UniProtKB/TrEMBL annotation:
Segment forming the signal sequence: none
Record's protein name: Integrase arm-type DNA-binding domain-containing protein
Native organism: Thalassococcus arenae
Keywords carried by this UniProt record: DNA integration, DNA-binding
Organism lineage: Bacteria, Pseudomonadati, Pseudomonadota, Alphaproteobacteria, Rhodobacterales
MF GO annotations: DNA binding
Top-level division of the source organism's lineage: Bacteria
Family, per entry: Belongs to the 'phage' integrase family.
Tyr recombinase domain: residues covered: 205-377
UniProt-listed CDD domains: INT_P4_C (cd00801)
Pfam family, one: Phage_integrase
């Protein structure tokens, strides 16, 4: 015979004195002396009686308690322990929360097309991965506030100011991405955190660059045609960044022009044009000298696989007792242009692959000054190799 259901009423629940009252079907009300009360359900699963709480009478109405009871009785009739099933569902729900780590990865994936080399170098994501996600990665993004962000970045705010700034910038992007997903986030949290952190005491350290007057002497020390020496010589002669240089391929060279794919050019995001680099006679000789090291079409392959690393070139300079870094040769070249020539600024900046001028100016000025840059790189090579040590006031 089925047990009668719905024996209680809302009025009974409210007026009940302390004690336990059955609503039927295993649903019970436990009324306490302080006036509060608790719903609980008794079921039998595999011959074992189970008792699970369904919530306080102040939060769960009689109707809602009955609906919950019926839901969990159905599980019991199927031989499923309702207490274990509810705990399982709770754990799954927690796993499905939009934690910061998941949203950050999703934001990174959506931005890869905008990043150099599809973000494979990891530079966009690493500030978050190293300094934010270890502390906040498992926190639901909707719960993150300025206090959380401040506490996460405080250890590096003054000691690694630039890294902290990048982490804050990336986090702001992630929060905007979360908002676009429809999540409830505080888009001002990063700005509030910045206000709490105060002004950073960190002083940016510029990359140490060799004075241009010393470049020829250093260039002469690279005479032995090793991969490292050849790469450093080409880096000096072309004034490009080490990334495109390390991945330089023979099939990118046509005649006296080396064409760097647009996606390898930092600071030229959104542009579909490649960047042409004029090669001097000295640079073309290096291309021939590098052929014995050719692996998979790369001029400067690594010792075992891939291409030569930026660290390898840096170690060479450090071993020579020099305080300068390979990237600094771009500054050496730019200083030489400024102090020894009358080359217009827009041409000088184009030599470095920089996007010069305003957006409107660039819309009308489509040239890359290739002809003028050919002359410049030829004169730079003559200076570097010691063929010409004169001033270039008329150049």
């Amino acid at each position: 015979m089925a047990r009668p259901l719905h024996k209680l009423s809302a009025a009974t629940v409210k007026a009940a004195v302390p004690g336990k009252y059955s609503d039927g079907g295993g649903l019970w009300l436990h009324k306490r002396r302080d006036g509060g009360g608790q719903w609980f359900l008794r079921v039998t699963v595999h011959g074992r009686r189970r008792e699970m709480g369904l919530g306080s009478i102040n939060e769960v109405t009689l109707k809602e308690a009955r609906e919950q009871a019926e839901h969990w009785r159905l599980h019991a009739r199927k031989g499923i322990d309702p207490i274990k099933e509810r705990e399982k569902q709770r754990r799954e729900a927690e796993r499905n929360l939009h934690c910061l780590a998941d949203v950050a990865l999703d934001a990174f994936e959506s931005r890869k097309a905008e990043l150099k080399g599809d973000g494979k170098a990891g530079r966009w994501f690493s500030p978050l991965e190293l300094h934010v996600l270890p502390k906040l990665g498992e926190v639901p993004v909707s719960d993150i506030d300025q206090i959380d962000i401040r506490d996460a970045l405080k250890p590096i705010w003054h000691s690694k100011g630039e890294t902290a700034r990048k982490a804050l910038n990336r986090l702001s992007i992630v929060l905007r991405h979360a908002a676009a997903l429809g999540l409830d986030v505080d888009l001002q949290a990063t700005e509030k955190a910045k206000a709490l952190l105060g002004k950073s005491r960190h002083t940016p350290q510029h990359i140490a660059a060799m004075p241009w007057i010393e470049v020829p002497d250093f260039y002469r020390t690279l005479e032995e045609p090793t991969t490292t020496n050849l790469a450093l010589r080409m880096l000096i002669l072309t004034a490009v960044r080490s990334g495109p240089l390390r991945f330089m391929r023979y099939d990118q060279i046509e005649g006296e022009i080396w064409t760097i794919p647009a996606e390898q050019m930092k600071g030229r995001l959104g542009q579909t044009s490649d960047f042409r680099v004029p090669l001097s006679d000295e640079a073309l000789q290096l291309v021939d000298l590098a052929r014995p090291f050719d692996r998979e079409g790369y001029l400067f392959p690594g010792l075992r696989k891939g291409v030569i690393s930026d660290m390898t070139m840096g170690k060479h300079m450090k071993k020579a007792g020099l305080p300068f870094r390979p990237h600094g040769f771009r500054s050496s070249f730019r200083d030489w242009l400024a102090e020894q020539t009358r080359v217009p600024r827009e041409i000088a900046e184009t030599c470095l692959g920089h996007v010069a001028g305003s957006q409107v100016e660039r819309a009308y000025l489509r040239t890359d000054f290739l002809e003028q840059r050919c002359l410049i790189m030829t004169e730079w090579a003559r200076f570097v190799t010691g063929e010409n040590e004169e001033n270039y006031d008329d150049f």
